[in-house]
TrEMBL record:
The keyword Phosphoprotein does not apply. This is O-acetylserine/cysteine exporter. It comes from Achromobacter pulmonis. GO terms for cellular component: membrane. Residues 11-135, 149-290 form the EamA domain. Keywords: Membrane, Transmembrane, Transmembrane helix.
Amino acid sequence: MSTTHLSRKDYLCALAVVLIWGSNFVVMKVGMKGLSPMMLGALRFALAAFPLILFVRPPRLPWRWVAAYGLVQGLGQFGLLFTALQSGMPAGMASLVIQTQAFFTLLLAAPLLHERAQRHHWLGLCVAAAGLAIIAGGRGAGPGQMTMTGFVLTLGAAFMWAVSNIIVRLASRRSPGYDPFAFIAWSSAAPVLPFLLLAVLIDGWEPALAMVAGMGWSEALSVLYLAGLATLLAYTLWTQLLTRHAAAKVAPFSLLVPVVGLWAASMAFDESLLPLQWLGAACVLAGLVLNQLGGRWLRTR
């Protein structure tokens, strides 16, 4: 059942998710130095699912919800995102562009969930959208540039993320009270085989085996981070928030991810931040504050 106000614990969980996901894009880039996008996806979700599902009971949900979430969020979102990063999408810009999932979520939530966003939600997202546009428009030559292919693929990944948000909300309405950790662990098994099949089809059987056999420490640690922190921990916290609160309240938190992502990318890959990008980040923060606190301010008026 959805609650009205976010508690202090909810805010701390959202902050943890932001920090994990903000650093996530740098880790993906590191992992793909020795692994293809499809193989990285297969290893990530295989490690997130196995051997946990041998010890964790299945969630009290129809299997169609578990499989749908796993395929949309796993194969859809991350298959497209990993391919975008390989296609020239910088890590910092990827952390920015994929946050359009918040807008896709609000657009899908109205017809599918009948959750109407209030005026301050839309106003906050417009301010944040202006910030995202400023950051994207403030790109310079060098590592911060993004390719059109990478941009389109990242937008596709953002749409898939929004669809997975809607699946979580619909599942929580059909079967309230299910275990989010079990849901993430079991749904992680769904994209493993499709990822492996795509890795063999795209990369070839022998190169796919060679990638796994030749993994170094950086690739192995990347897979561990993506499976343990970014998938099991962060998505469990994110799913808990979505099951307890309306999508319009939860989705805007992801707008903080590019602030962390741009900083992490600048530290790891020297992706330079221009003054306009910092201005855009400030707008994103202002939009989030307006989205979360605007209703309270309007009520006091």
